[in-house]
Amino acid sequence: MEMMSNNAIRILKYQKKIEKALNIKISIKGRKIRTEGDNVDEYLAERFFEAVEAGFSVRISLLLADDNYVLEKLSIKNYTKRDNLSLIRARLIGHHGETRELIEDLSDCFIKVHDNFVYILGRAEDIKKAQNAVIKIIQGSKQSSVYAYLEKQRGIQHEDDLGLKDKADKKDKF
């Protein structure tokens, strides 16, 4: 696989670590990056490079080497009819990045807004709530409503994770 990258220097700095994590061989010539590996590893490398190009750090992008992590790309244009996409990007990022950071914290995902796309990197089970939150912001929902939605989703997940629901169900049967 061969691609162009503005991040070739960052890739070069972590080349050995990337090669080991993704089970590929990387060669860099100028801004051209060439990878060699089997088809699955090449696909994984492609997703990794897409994450780096979106602005994620190499460390975070390498989470994609774990089968439980995925990268989703949402086009802002698919969820709005508004022409002023810079205003929507600003709403997604928030003042000093606060909206993006809160969505990240509440959804347990990493988010980058790049051009007219939103990239979400996280565990497969967490991606859907981050996607829903981002889409709600794009469509004009108040940030506070989106935070409340995420907190509710987080509460549901934690209840399931702790096994409290099962214990409550058993308790009610006796």
Count of domain modules = 2
Runs in which pLDDT lies below 50 for 5 or more consecutive residues are 161-174
Number of helices: 9
In what order do the strands lie side by side in the largest sheet?
1-3-2
Tally of strands = 6
Q: State the order of secondary-structure elements, H for helix, E for strand.
A: EHHEEHHEHHEEHHH
Largest sheet: 3 strands, antiparallel
Please identify the top-level CATH class of the largest domain.
Answer: Alpha Beta
Q: What is the CATH homologous superfamily assignment of the largest domain?
A: K Homology domain, type 1
Principal-axis shape: globular
The name of the CATH architecture of the largest domain is: 2-Layer Sandwich
Strand content: 15-25%
Mean pLDDT: 86
Radius of gyration: 19 Å
* CATH fold-level assignment of the largest domain: Ribosomal Protein S8, Chain: A, domain 1
